[in-house]
Amino acid sequence: MNAILAPIGFAARLRLDALELPALAAIWGISFLFMRVAAPAFGPLALVELRLALGGLVLAPLLWRARAQFPLRLWPKLALVGAINSAVPFVLFAWGAERAPAGIGAITSAMTVLFAALVGFACFGEKIGTRRALALLGGFAGVGVLAAGKSGGAGAAIGWAVAAGCAAAFLYGVGLHLVRRHLGGLPPAAVASATLLSAALLMLPAALAQWPAQAIGARAWGAALLLGLLCTGLAYALFYRLVARIGAARTSLATYLIPLFGVAWAWLLLDEPVTVPMAAAGALILAGVWLARREAQ
After folding, report:
1. What three-state secondary structure class fits 184?
2. CA angle, 111 as apex, 167 and 271 as ends, to 5°?
3. What is the DSSP string of 144-174?
4. Model confidence at 294: pLDDT above 90
5. What are the distances in angstroms from CA 102 to CA 84, 85, 87, 270?
6. Alpha carbon of 141 to those of 101, 134, 229, 277, 288: distances in Å?
7. Distance of CA 67 to the CA centre of its chain
8. CB atoms within 10 A of CB 15
9. pLDDT tens digits, residue range 15-54?
10. Are residues 170 and 26 in contact, defined by beta-carbon separation less than 8 angstroms?
11. pTM of the model
């Protein structure tokens, strides 16, 4: 009987994985829409404070269960990783969301893979082969196309928002190496909670100082709550569930889909146009990501 049921169970898991992977990309993709809606009302600092705190609290039960593995001496390191890998990138993306369409942030976020390769080469002695070198060139060409383009319906330059998104992606690339080298062996979801909550504590004074004086509308509040609870807390939980079941390499395929979902959500729900520079830049960056991943495999 077990032999008969095993293939059925395996097929069910495959179908579940096939649904959960694009669901994760869709959730992370819509985070840029929520930032676009909420950032003008809250400001970047207050919005990110809510995102960090809510996301960390969603995962807090996993941190509590693994608390014996998190002695006090580890928390300064967790706070540093939280600042580099969460707080500052989140602020940069939120700052950019005040100034440019949501799709811009989604496209630049895909540069994380390329920056991780560059940081590994520059700081940790990792090799960059021909494919990764081409991948980096293609990715940076895409950034140039995106920064030089016009968007938003009013012809406004989006260069500063592109720069902020690329800086955030660079910090994500640094954070990947820091987590791998200094926090390896710890439960990943618990690490995510610890770094998010540490970052929230670090940012709290600045967020309170910049908290908006005016009343915040229900639409902005809804976007902020979904950004923290869904796109940060629950998305991390889904991410680590997939990593445990199908491995990090296959889970990272969501990287290809995040820009597509980000642009699609903004087009569908915010009526943001999809411009030729956005499409060309996205194609160049995703081609670079594909090349970088092929060499890494």
Report:
1. coil
2. 90
3. HHHHHSEETTTTEE-HHHHHHHHHHHHHHHH
4. no
5. 22, 20, 19, 9
6. 20, 10, 35, 11, 10
7. 25
8. 10
9. 556 788 899 999 999 999 999 999 999 999 999 999 999 9
10. no
11. 0.89
Look at residue 249 in the predicted model and tell me its pLDDT.
65
Tokens of 90: 């989140």
- Lowest model confidence (mean pLDDT) among 10-24, 117-131, 176-190: 10-24
pLDDT of residue 209: 97
Residue spans of alpha helices (H) in the chain: 2-42, 44-65, 75-82, 88-97, 102-109, 112-124, 130-148, 159-182, 188-209, 218-228, 235-246, 248-251, 254-270, 276-296
Cβ atoms within 10 Å of 61's Cβ, excluding its own: 12
Instruction: Please give the average per-residue pLDDT across 113-133, as a whole number.
Output: 86
CA distance 174 to 196: 16
Query: Which DSSP letter does residue 234 get?
Result: I
